[in-house]
Amino acid sequence: MGGAQPLAVTLNGGACLCVEVDASRIERRIEHGYLDVRADSLAEAMALLEQAKRDRAALSVGLLGNAADVFPRLLAEGADIDVVTDQTSAHDPLMYLPVGVDFDDWVPRRTEDPDGFTTAARESMARHCEAMVGFADAGAEVFDYGNSLRAEAREGGFSRAFDYPGFVPAYIRPLFCAGKGPFRWAALSGDPADIAATDRAVLDLFPDDDHLQRWIRAAQRRVSFQGLPARICWLGMGERHLAGLRFNDMVAAGELSAPLAIGRDHLDCGSVASPYRETEAMRDGSDAIADWPLLNAWSTSPPVPPGSPSTTGVASASAARSTPVRWSSSTAPRWRAKRQSGC
Length: 343
Ligand SMILES: NC(=O)c1ccc[n+]([C@@H]2O[C@H](COP(=O)([O-])OP(=O)(O)OC[C@H]3O[C@@H](n4cnc5c(N)ncnc54)[C@H](O)[C@@H]3O)[C@@H](O)[C@H]2O)c1
Description:
Blueprint: H1 4-11, E1 15-20, H2 23-31, E2 37-39, H3 42-55, E3 59-64, H4 67-76, E4 83-84, H5 106-112, H6 114-137, E5 141-142, H7 149-155, H8 167-177, E6 181-187, H9 192-205, H10 210-222, E7 230-235, H11 240-252, E8 260-263, H12 292-300, H13 313-322, H14 331-340
Parallel strand pairs: 1-3, 2-3, 4-5
Antiparallel strand pairs: 6-7, 6-8
Nicotinamide-adenine-dinucleotide binds near residues 21, 68, 96 and 145.
């Protein structure tokens, strides 16, 4: 269980079971309002969730257990589950607790025998992923959250690991195609009132965007700030600059007590370039090409003269794929000259 998922489900009116091997994580997420309650057994958790479903109430339940054990049990019991995903730290087998290893032995076991631990973790991930494919076969909506569970499960011997899609091709890429992506900002004053003011500005700027209206109001009620007060929302092409300019005006007019820092989410700029995660299933076959950081560097570099190769996305993308360049202000002119001479 990561922190985001239980809250995402309840914000959307759903009921969910979150399986976690670390009791302290469950307690912390309840304390911060990201998770509602804890159950002491799978039977108790399912009873609570069945009741929430009957009452059409949003509820998230944390269960102490190993996903590689609980998911197959739920499948075998024929649990009526509509949506299945996973947010364990599967990108690193040493961070995934295999079945049969006690939580307290996790660190000593992986320190003493990292190779043996990796093999055991991959075997457990194979069982975990196999259960997810089983839920997909039974008709559930199943997706990978971008944590590499499928690639590790395949290493662990499960050949159907990629039978369900990653979340980017399944849901997010169509939004990218329409120019929509994450846009976020933090209040450098540290004052939550500044974020409340920007919330009002965004609600005022985009009154017809129902998703955005619902999200901002829900985030105000349910998302607690960690570190500097901050907000994220998804805006489309032709919208972000409107929000940025409104924020500039608010700072200039003293409506905010300090400037904001506008940032970009990894989904929007660098992302994970991997055929097994976020750039999987690119329609032009460029799944494993890590040119996004370069594109990002170019698009945020100082302006260059019109007509130079890096002023168009197409030229940048094709150049990055064929020309490995270590970026620095001194390499830029040399590299451009090389491109223009056709080398
Ligand atoms: N797609 C995205 O945008 C996105 C965003 C954030 C994180 N991620 C990925 O999601 C994964 C989790 O990230 P996080 O920041 O939530 O990490 P996290 O460490 O906060 O949470 C992972 C949790 O998994 C638990 N866990 C480990 N093995 C388990 C097992 N066998 N059964 C049940 N629980 C187990 C850990 O105790 C931990 O609490 C990472 O692989 C990360 O790369 C993807």
